[in-house]
Amino acid sequence: MDAALSEEQESIRRTLRDVLRDRCGPGQVRAAVRTEPGYDEELWRLLAGRVGLAGLAVADRYGGAGRGPTELALACEETGRVLLPSPLLGTAGLVAPLIAALGTPEQREELLPGISSGELTGALAVPGGALPTALGLTAPNDGDWAGGGRAGGVQARPGPDGRTPDGSGWWLYGEASQVLGGHSADLLLVAARTGGYVRGRTLLFVLRPAAARGVTRVRLTALDETRPQARVELRDAEAALLGDAGADVPGELARLGRSVAAVLAAEAVGAADRVLERTVGHARSRVQFGRPIGSFQAVKHRLADLYVAVQAARSAAYYAAWAVGGDATDDGAAGGLALAQALETLRDVAGEAVQLHGGIGVTWEHEVQLYFKRAVSDELLFGPVHRLRARAADEAGLFAGRTAREAVAL
């Protein structure tokens, strides 16, 4: 592995940082999350269109840049630094790869160019808040998380005579909560259970909320406003099957989980790096007992420990992105371990930042509280850390003959 970034990768990072520095300050973030979509639509069009962020990892034949997980992770490290509220994770991190992997040629031609240009935003609707399980991050992905029958979730059934009025052939019924960006997405990929009890299986369905009947979307009150969530209710909503009925959806979601983990890890590292930078600046300027608090040895030691933790988490995130990009495809545990380390680091750095800022660290006007909320919220959404590590241990076969949880219990 060559740890040095290429000139092109450095250019992506530099360009994105320059744009976000001018357009995504703390005040602008607060204003953006209170809009109806939950993000600055003008800034998103700029990032998706002129910068090419939405299509960074989409093949060039569909209008994308044709880059890989490493470039997407570098971009997300920069968006994480400013806590950018945007459809980036749902659109480029979740929906676009699934369409590219499972969609028919017609579906790829129809949807991916719009995603690459930023005209289409997307969200993955997984029932019951089971996104970490669906992506294979905290438990094996066996498909049962999609519900069906008495388990609730979302069920899919063929329309009358096997066809629905729009020709898609499927109706969806059920509910998905905690859908990231689901209240404003132009396109929903809905995981639903079909086939009954005996031959039940999980499939993905393409749904356009603006055109389909029977769809209700409600934005939820979230701890982290910069990562908006929604509840999606489906009442015989018309949808089209993504790909064909023989697709291995659980397996593809588990494979996608490795790249998503790397991207989320890089995003958390960016946030941790920024809040540490902010805390060091405060320690240099805050005077107590006639001298800057950063000159006290105890404070120096705490900041030094945080710096080492951030650099270690960054190395793990970069390795995970490099591994999932094809150079080390057998290292399936790298993504989960990198995400666990990055989330833990962000939590520790944000917590120490609140302490070292004193009372202002928890005030609404200060930006530190935004990073603390991101740290807590992300661990609730994608963790917790100990389950990420337990799952990675299972994948790596560290505990032969028993799962990581069983080994810990012993």
From TrEMBL:
Organism (species): Streptomyces albireticuli
Keyword Acetylation attached: no
Acyl-CoA dehydrogenase/oxidase C-terminal domain span: 263-389
Family in the record: Belongs to the acyl-CoA dehydrogenase family.
GO molecular-function terms, A-Z: acyl-CoA dehydrogenase activity; flavin adenine dinucleotide binding
Cofactor: FAD
Protein name (record): Acyl-CoA dehydrogenase
Keywords: FAD, Flavoprotein, Oxidoreductase
Pfam families membership: Acyl-CoA_dh_1, Acyl-CoA_dh_N
Regions crossing the membrane: none
Signal peptide location: none
Every Acyl-CoA dehydrogenase/oxidase N-terminal domain range: 6-119
